[in-house]
Structures are given as structure tokens and as C-alpha cells.
Design goal:
Layout (H helix, E strand, L loop, with lengths): L1 H8 L8 E3 L2 E9 L4 H12 L4 E7 L4 E6 L5 H11 L3 E4 L2 H38 L6 H22 L1 H12 L6 H21 L6 H35 L3 E5 L5 E5 L8 E4 L9 E5 L2 E4 L1 H4 L5 E3 L4 E2 L4 E2 L4 E5 L7 H14 L3 H32 L2 H14 L3 H5 L2 H13 L2 E3 L2 H9 L2 E4 L1 H5 L5 E3 L8 H9 L5 H10 L9 E3 L3 E6 L2 E6 L1 H4 L7 E2 L5 E9 L5 E6 L6 H10 L3 E5 L4 H11 L3 E3 L4 H13 L4 E5 L5 H6 L2 E5 L4 H6 L2 E3 L6 H35 L5 H20 L5
Parallel strand pairs: 16-24, 16-26, 24-25, 26-27, 27-28
Antiparallel strand pairs: 1-2, 2-4, 2-5, 3-4, 6-7, 6-8, 8-14, 9-12, 9-14, 10-11, 10-13, 15-28, 17-23, 18-19, 19-20, 20-22, 21-22, 22-23
Helix pairs in contact: 2-11, 4-5, 4-8, 5-7, 5-8, 6-7, 7-8, 7-12, 8-10, 8-14, 8-26, 10-14, 11-12, 12-25, 12-26, 14-25, 14-26, 15-25, 17-18, 25-26
Length: about 725
């Protein structure tokens, strides 16, 4: 860790660049970003650097993901751009992300505690001043003001640091953000109070300054806790990444190395109970592993030489030697973490609207405050009420609620879906999902299980299954694997030979035994046929020398929850349509079994995208659900798309949402959460607009003190946050 920080201090940002396909990728932690306006400022600034293709800032974790073309040295220019905008930048380290969030929360808690202590004590003195009006002498009141200032000013100096630091960075970059009016309002309130105390007459607003900070810090802390609650999914995944591993050196010795230093081709020793650090292939040893993070199933998976393993799996058996096939940042667990973070950080049309509003809103606040100052000075011919009312306008019109309106809903919605096994890859995916009008479904692997299974195995002659399984274990053919799975663990036939395109044969108990196609063994090959339940049968035969051949039937079964999915889609106003590259007969059988009236078969990937374009031209907004490589173009071209967790990598990358546990019931849930999120966003915008329409004119007219303005502004942010959290109980 020290070496990493030292390298960073020296400015070598290129050391943290990694390959991302044909492009380069850089992950940074950005310090000082608090709101949607910060996101817009940073992303716009970074994408303005020549060579940068994309920049996405996750406000929850502070992680900025940048993809660019060009030399690694371009990373130094990216970091320089971020710092020129007034924000800090350092390497993003998953293992320390949780520590950074905790440290930031502690700083806010300390500032809140100081502001709360000062508020309580200054309010006691203020109550004494208010209750003693008319009876308290001027000297006593001035003394109480001095005591209030002695308590409030040091507390303000400490508690205001998060806002002053953010405002100063913005002003240094010749920009404004929402912390600028906050800092200005607090400074003016304290300055006016000191002036009133020095001259010995009038009112002091030390109580308003410390209470404003206290409520602002409460709102900011709640906002951080909300982000942390939804962002905990990504941090929990990052915590599952092993921080170190034992690498087998060329001389056979073991060396403990950070997981970040593991490279493809390295051999790692994984002890019993140890978590696997990177994706790889077992090179030595046998045992079992907990793969629930990958498959969603609690049953352990058997491992042997040649078995594929993924980062995050836990070795439950004897020690294994694993050959790494990917670096940590390119492993499955890191990919899932990025999917979760992508869902939290996505900027939608609503977020862009909020960003544009915030850019206009902050200058407008200063204009209104100046107009209030000028207007009241002209009316009252006294600077005191003019300054007080201008301060109230600055405080009450702070656009914190506007900035929270959309992000709060998005992080809660993404966190809610993740708990149910749905990874959201972009924030606007939920908006598009809410608007879909028709559901387009793939067949194999989506409505069906995607692999053949033995059916009617209990009707086979005694001993036939066990004998056929011994041959099947020596073959990689899908039907052989299905048969071996149905038979369970056991030994393979010794001396078995696989004949390509035909089957497997061996000599067992002095007789020749074959398992394969009917044509090869001379059986009456009946080919394929529907079983009446939507499953389309495939067959293989067992031939024992001197005996009648035995037929084994296999079928790609319809998922148990497929029928419920079709009903749920129709209940939500979405008519399903089945598009498949399979032959007509199997597609027709599945469509008939599920009651789907609109279906097409024998489609190429281009045919599927053409059909989606036809639906779009007809005014439909399509939801595409698929999992195969051939579905990737359709997933990318659909209005919204969902991929199964077992799908090919390219299909998961093309989809907007990924169902991690392959449960079709998660699709209607995602639709419901998306629609509920839309309602929460609309409600938040309505609440924000209503608040400003009521509060700002009252402040301009002079009916609000800075103290009341502080309470009202903080309450508006809390209301927006609480309204977003209603999604958790949806």
C-alpha cells in the first residue's frame, strides 16, 4: 500500500492504467464530490480531454471510471484535469473503499457533534435573551451575545469545513456549486452577528449559524448513509475479493502477494477455507467449492483438474493449485462489482435535468439574494434588515433537495433490486424499463433451461442407466454430459473411445458396448419430437452386444417459472413475443405450451435486430430478454434489455439489467421497482418545486429569519431522502 501511495504522490498515474479491450481504463477515487452538479462538472471536464471515450462518476463510492484511447501517460492529464476543477484524485482501491467511507462518516459525525453542542448551548442563551426582552439591560444582552459568539464562532469554524472546502475548490476553478451559497450564508450570518455584538445593539444570529450547520450536517450525513446503504452492495462484493494470495514461484516456493499483483498464468495455492482471489483453472487437486456467489445455488460444486473457478469462490476441500486466467480487475467478482456500481452511478435523463437545473439554480440564488438585499435597502433605508433577509434567501433556497431528487431514488432502487439478485448497469435503464410496451423473449436459456436433461429415466431397464453413464463420462457431448449428470458420480469406462459424430464405445465384461446415435448402432432412429409439454425430445441409444438397444430421451425443459412470467408480463400490459434462432418445431412447441401467440423461428442475430426495429417503427418500446451470444445485438439495440446471469459475457455486457440467479420472477419485480422509482422521482421533483414556490417568496418578503430558513432548507432535503427510501418497503 505504501508503494502505491508513493507512486501516486510522484504523479505516476499511468501505473494504475489497465487494459479494457482495445481501450485503456483508469479507476480513481474523487474527493469532494457531493451532488449532481459535481458529477456533471467532473464528467464533462474529463470527457473534454482528448482521447477520453467515457467518464462515469459514482457519487456513492467516489469512484470515477474512465475509458480512453492513447498512451498510459494520458492518465496524468486526466488527474490534472480533475484537480484543476477543484477536486482531489487518488487511485481507487477496493480494499480501502469501505475505510474511506467510514472515515468520511466519522468526520461528518464529529462536525455534527460540535455543531449540535454549540446549538444547544447557544439556544439556551438565546432563549434567555428572548424571554428577557424589555427587562434585560443592554449590557447584559451584549454579554450574552459575546458568550454566544465565544461558543458559536469556534464551533462554526470547525463544523463548516466540509462546506468551505468544497466551495473554495469550486471558486478556485472559477465555478460555483451548492456549497457556495451555504458558505456565504453562514459567513454573512456570523459576520452580521459579530458586528451587532460589537456595536452593542440589535440582534445576533449566532444561533442561526450553528443551527444551520447542524441541520445541514444532519442532512449531509443522512445523504451519505443513504448512499452507503445502497452502495454497500458493491462494497460487500469488494470485501469478498481476497486481498492476498499465495503464489507458487518457479522454484516451487510459496510467496504471499497482494491480489492486485496476480497475473494470468500465475499458479496459486488455495488452502481449505480460503477464498479464490482471481478467475482460473484447477491444475492440481480435487475437492469442492462454495460457488453460491457465482451460481446462486447453495450446493457445493465438485472441482478437479481442468475445472473452471471464479474469484469469490471458497475452497471447501483439500488444497488446490489454480492457474490464474485473469488479473483481479478482470475477474468475475470485479466485473459484478462494476455492474453494481454502474447501476448506482448511471446518469439518466432525469439526472441530466437535475444537473442543468442546478447549474442555473445556483447563480439564480445569488441573483435573488442580491435583489433582496438591494430591494430591502431601498425600502427600509437600513442595511441590517436587507442583510438579514438576503441571508435568509441564501439559506432557504439552497438546491440540496433538487440535487438529491433523482440520485436518492436511483441508489435506493438499485440497492433494492440487487438484494433480489438483479444487477442494474445504468441509472436510465430503470427509466426505460418503466416505459416498455412489449416484451421480446429468446427461447433457449431464457424460457428454457438451455441444456438437455434426461427424461423418463425411471422407465429405463435395470442397469441400463449405470452402464450408459460409464460411457457418457468419457465424452464431452451435451447428451453424454446430461446422462452423466442424471446418473450421478461414478467411474468412467476404461478404454472408452469416442467416435466423432457417432458416440462412445468400450469393452465391458467381455462385450462391446456403444452409446450414441441410432444410425451408428443400427437402432430405429426416430429423431426428434415434442412431448406435448413444450419440451422437444432428443434421443441417444445404448447398445450392449447381443441385446436389444435401449432408447434414452432428452429434452431442454421449460423453466418452471416461465408460465408465471408470461402471465405477469400480460398483467403489466406487456404482450410477449418469442424470437428464436432454433427450428420451427421446437419453437412452436414452447410457444404453444406457454400460450405465446406471436413467435418466429430460424432467426439470425440480424433478423432479431430487424424485428426490433420494426416494432420500434410501429411505436413500440421493446424489452428484450436473452442470454446467448446471438442475442447480444438485440440486447444492445432494444429500448431496454435484460440478460440472464448464466448468459455469455458479451450478452451480459450488452444488457441493461442482469438477473444474477436466473430467476424469471425477477423480471416482473424489476418492472414494478422501475415504475415505483418513476413515481418517487416525480414526487421528489414536485416536492422540491412546491417547497421553493412557497419558501423563497416568503423569505424575499422578509417573513423568515435565518434560523427558520436553516430549519426549512434541511427539512426539505430530509423529506426528499425519506420519500426515496419508501422504495425499500415497496
Amino acid at each position: 500500500m505504501a508503494a502505491i501511495e508513493a507512486s501516486w504522490v510522484e504523479g505516476d498515474a499511468a501505473a494504475f492504467v489497465r487494459a479494457d479491450g482495445e481501450a485503456r481504463a483508469l479507476d480513481l477515487t474523487v474527493d469532494g464530490a457531493w451532488c449532481g452538479a459535481c458529477i456533471a462538472k467532473i464528467e464533462d471536464g474529463v470527457t473534454g480531454v482528448d482521447g477520453v471515450r467515457r467518464a462515469r462518476l459514482n457519487l456513492t463510492s467516489g469512484r470515477l471510471s474512465v475509458r480512453f484511447s492513447g498512451p498510459d501517460s494520458l492518465a496524468d492529464e486526466i488527474v490534472g484535469t480533475i484537480r484543476a476543477l477543484g477536486y482531489g484524485a487518488r487511485p481507487y482501491l477496493p480494499e480501502t473503499a469501505s475505510d474511506a467511507v467510514t472515515a468520511q462518516e466519522k468526520r461528518l459525525l464529529r462536525a455534527m457533534a460540535v455543531a449540535g453542542f454549540a446549538t444547544a448551548n447557544v439556544m439556551l442563551l438565546s432563549v434567555a435573551v428572548w424571554s428577557g426582552a424589555g427587562e434585560m439591560t443592554a449590557s447584559t444582552r451584549t454579554l450574552l451575545h459575546w458568550v454566544s459568539g465565544a461558543i458559536a464562532l469556534p464551533a462554526v469554524a470547525y463544523a463548516v469545513r466540509p462546506f468551505f472546502a468544497s466551495a473554495w475548490r469550486a471558486l478556485k476553478a472559477r465555478r460555483v456549486n451548492m456549497d457556495v451559497p451555504i458558505s456565504l450564508g453562514v459567513s454573512l450570518a456570523c459576520g452580521l452577528s459579530v458586528y451587532e455584538t460589537v456595536i452593542g445593539h440589535g440582534d445576533a444570529y449566532f444561533d442561526a449559524a450553528v443551527m444551520l450547520l447542524f441541520f445541514l450536517l444532519i442532512g449531509r450525513y443522512l445523504d451519505m448513509r443513504l448512499r452507503a446503504r445502497a452502495g454497500a452492495a458493491a462494497r460487500r462484493l469488494a470485501a469478498l475479493e481476497a486481498r492476498a494470495a499465495r503464489r507458487v514461484e518457479p522454484d516451487g516456493s510459496l510467496r504471499a502477494v497482494p491480489a492486485s499483483e496476480i497475473r494470468p498464468g500465475d499458479h496459486l495455492l488455495i488452502s481449505a477455507g480460503e477464498r479464490i482471489a482471481v478467475d482460473g483453472i484447477v491444475s492440481e487437486g480435487e475437492g469442492e467449492a462454495d460457488a453460491s456467489l457465482v451460481t446462486g445455488e447453495s450446493a457445493p460444486v465438485a472441482l478437479q483438474a481442468g475445472s473452471r473457478v471464479w474469484s469469490g469462490m471458497v475452497n471447501l476441500g483439500a488444497a488446490l493449485t489454480v492457474r490464474a486466467s485473469a488479473a483481479r480487475d478482470d475477474s468475475l467478482l470485479s466485473e459484478i462489482t462494476r455492474l453494481v456500481e454502474a447501476g448506482e452511478q448511471g446518469r439518466s435523463a432525469y439526472v441530466r435535468l437535475a444537473d442543468r437545473a442546478a447549474k442555473i439554480y445556483v447563480p439564480l440564488v445569488h441573483v435573488m439574494a442580491f435583489a433582496t438585499l438591494a430591494g430591502w435597502f431601498i425600502i427600509a433605508q437600513d442595511p441590517r434588515p436587507a442583510i438579514i433577509n438576503a441571508i435568509a434567501v441564501l439559506i432557504i433556497s439552497c438546491p440540496c433537495a433538487l440535487a438529491l431528487a433523482v440520485p436518492a431514488v436511483q441508489v435506493v432502487a438499485c440497492g433494492r433490486l440487487y438484494k433480489d439478485g438483479v444487477l442494474v448497469r445504468s441509472g436510465d435503464a430503470l427509466e426505460r424499463l418503466e416505459r416498455v410496451t412489449v416484451a421480446v423473449l429468446d427461447k433457449t436459456g431464457t424460457l428454457t433451461e438451455g441444456r438437455p436433461r434426461l427424461i423418463r429415466g425411471d422407465a429405463l431397464p435395470e442397469g441400463a442407466l449405470a452402464m450408459a453413464a460409464r460411457l457418457a463420462r468419457a465424452s464431452r457431448h451435451p447428451l453424454s454430459q446430461a446422462l452423466a449428470e442424471a446418473a450421478g458420480t461414478g467411474e468412467a469406462a476404461s478404454g472408452a473411445v469416442e467416435v466423432p459424430g457417432r458416440g462412445v464405445e468400450a469393452e465391458m465384461n467381455g462385450r462391446r458396448v456403444r452409446f450414441g446415435s441410432g444410425r451408428w448402432i443400427g437402432a430405429p432412429d426416430r429423431g426428434e419430437g415434442a412431448d406435448g409439454k413444450g419440451a422437444f425430445e432428443l434421443e441417444a441409444w445404448l447398445q450392449v452386444e447381443g441385446e436389444e438397444p435401449v432408447r434414452f430421451a432428452f429434452a431442454d425443459q421449460i423453466r418452471p417459472d416461465a408460465r408465471d412470467l408470461i402471465g405477469a408480463l400480460r398483467a403489466r400490459g406487456l404482450e410477449p413475443e418469442l424470437l428464436s434462432g432454433d427450428r420451427e418445431a421446437p419453437v412452436a412447441a414452447v410457444a404453444q405450451a406457454l400460450g405465446i401467440t406471436r413467435w418466429r423461428s430460424g432467426l439470425t442475430p440480424a433478423d432479431k435486430t430487424t424485428r426490433l426495429a420494426e416494432l420500434a417503427q410501429a411505436g413500440e418500446r421493446t424489452l428484450m430478454v436473452g442470454d446467448g451470444l446471438n442475442d447480444a445485438p438485440a440486447l444492445a439495440g432494444a429500448y431496454a434489455s435484460i440478460s440472464m446471469g448464466s448468459a455469455a459475457d458479451i450478452s451480459r455486457s450488452a444488457a441493461d439489467l442482469v438477473i444474477q440467479r436466473d430467476r424469471l420472477g425477477a423480471i416482473p419485480l424489476a418492472l414494478d421497482v422501475a415504475r415505483a422509482a418513476r413515481r418517487r422521482v416525480d414526487e421528489n421533483f414536485a416536492l422540491t418545486i412546491l417547497y421553493n414556490l412557497i419558501a423563497v417568496p416568503i423569505a424575499v418578503l422578509g417573513f423568515v429569519t435565518p434560523l427558520v430558513a436553516a430549519i426549512a432548507m434541511s427539512a426539505s432535503s430530509v423529506i426528499v431522502t425519506v420519500n426515496a427510501m419508501r422504495l425499500i418497503r415497496r
